[in-house]
Specification:
About 80% of the residues lie in helices and about 0% in strands.
């Protein structure tokens, strides 16, 4: 299994565990809120650079 597949499988597992333990809206807030908060913490130059690169280059 590739590295990206392992990360995706782990994300799905965490999402399912959160759905079991928390109400659906709280799990959704955590799953969508964490990447959004990480993106908003970047400098404007880092955001521009992230938008400019392709998906394959982000993992490097």
């Amino acid at each position: 299994m590739s590295r990206n597949a392992k990360i995706a499988a782990g994300g799905v597992a965490v999402g399912l565990i959160l759905l079991i333990w928390l109400p659906w809206w709280a799990a959704l807030l955590i799953v969508l809120g964490a990447p959004t908060a990480a993106y908003l913490m970047l400098d404007p130059s880092q955001r521009r650079r992230l938008r400019r690169v392709s998906r394959k280059e982000v993992g490097r």
